[in-house]
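[09:14] KT: can someone run the structure on this one? pasting the chain below
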Amino acid sequence: MQIGQTVIAMTAIILAIGMPLILAAMIMFYQSRKTDRIHDLALRLAEKGQPVPPEFLMGRQSPQSDLRRGLVMVGLGIGLSICLWQIEVAWGFGLIPLFMGFGYLAVWKLEGSNKT
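[09:31] RB: done, structure tokens below
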């Protein structure tokens, strides 16, 4: 292998591993910064004698929707399987999100019947 090909291969490997790590670090940094700003504002409210609403510190709680997650994962699995089948590679990898979606749908169905 020539030097140029080696450099390209090493760069591709480093970027393939490094980009998700950099993305995760950026997300964690901005979430930490947002939490720090919320705590600073709560501290300033407390110093002024103003009540700090409990919802303010809890943040937004989005309801967990297993139905939505399940439908998205099933669609992703079907689409990925078809795409991989069309380009003639291992289409079975699309079955992973497909069955994860079926699992979410099963949880949604089971929790829905337990609520009544």
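[09:33] KT: thanks! The mean pLDDT is 86.
[09:34] RB: yep, looked fine to me
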